[in-house]
Design brief:
305 residues; mainly alpha; 14 helices; 4% strand
Length: 305
């Protein structure tokens, strides 16, 4: 959050009001709100050091000075693009609550940068990752069920670890998820994922809980949900044991889910719905991955490639 001691009261107050709006009305995730808070804090401290106390005085030259300072300090295009997007939302809020009369960021183009494509596992690597473990235990059943469900649904790791038991309908083969902004979506999962979850529920969950009760599907011995960090550690350990050398992460499994669906003929709109993207342009990045694969094939096999 904005530290009141670093800014005059009126700037700190509007920043806090904006963050409250993101939490209470936009219902954004905690990490998203923290990112907005950091970006707004960075900008407000910039204008305060530049002796600008009135937000109405923020204009195009001031924004250009801000971006130039970022360039001098080696801040990348992607970070600047994120900040401009956050500040555009911030000033839109200020216009809405009559703190300023215009949004100077509305006409600022986001910095152009080479699109960084998400990394994905190959099908062969996914098969290695999901291979049966050497030793079966209640925890191994849980971890295996989580991996199968993650790859089968493309859930965000925060959605996976906090999934309620009641949200997983084995009969219909769907999970009900409340994602970013509290938006609800239903995602289907396959037979193999269902079988792994059934095995975990029969042979693992009760033994892990040891008599405790929990509303979460995937539990720890304390009866609580697993942390994102702990699941990342489990995933990394599993990948190393499987001989996968990539720097793996839960998000890479989500990328693999989307990439493999599109590569096998799924339509972009369906993948967007399953991923929970509010804007289809976010999902379109996966089409570039497939285009790169096609170019690689063309170069390799075409006689004039």
């Amino acid at each position: 959050m904005i530290e009141p001691s670093r800014l005059p009261e009126h700037l700190s107050s509007v920043a806090e009001s904006f963050l409250h709006y993101l939490i209470s009305e936009r219902r954004l995730a905690e990490n998203t709100v923290k990112a907005y808070a950091a970006d707004v804090d960075f900008f407000l401290n910039f204008i305060w050091r530049a002796s600008i106390a009135d937000l109405e005085l923020v204009d195009i030259p001031v924004i250009h000075q801000f971006l130039e300072q970022a360039r001098v300090h080696g801040i990348g295009h992607r970070s600047n693009a994120r900040r401009i997007s956050a500040l555009r939302h911030f000033f839109s809020f200020l216009v809405r609550v009559d703190q300023v009369h215009r949004n100077p960021f509305a006409i600022i183009d986001l910095p152009k940068s080479g699109q960084i494509l998400p990394k994905a596992l190959s099908l062969a690597e996914v098969n290695k990752l999901l291979a049966p473990p050497a030793v079966t235990s209640p925890l191994a059943c849980r971890d295996r069920a989580m991996l199968f469900l993650l790859y089968s649904t493309g859930l965000r790791v925060s959605e996976l670890v906090s999934l309620p038991l009641a949200a997983c309908n084995l009969a219909s083969g769907f999970v009900r998820v409340f994602g970013k902004g509290g938006k609800e979506r239903l995602i289907p999962f396959g037979i193999q994922a269902r079988e792994q979850i059934e095995t975990y529920l029969r042979q693992g969950r009760a033994l892990i809980l040891g008599g405790r009760r929990s509303n979460f599907l995937f539990v720890t011995a304390r009866g609580t949900a697993m942390t994102r960090l702990r699941f990342w550690q489990i995933l990394r350990k599993t990948a190393i044991a499987a001989g996968i050398t990539k720097d793996i992460s839960p998000h890479m499994i989500r990328h693999s889910f989307a990439t493999h669906l599109l590569a096998h003929g799924a339509d972009l709109r369906s993948v967007q719905m399953m991923l929970g993207h509010s804007d289809i342009t976010t999902t379109q990045i996966y089409t570039h991955i497939d285009q790169d694969r096609l170019k690689s094939i063309h170069r390799k096999y075409h006689p004039r490639g």
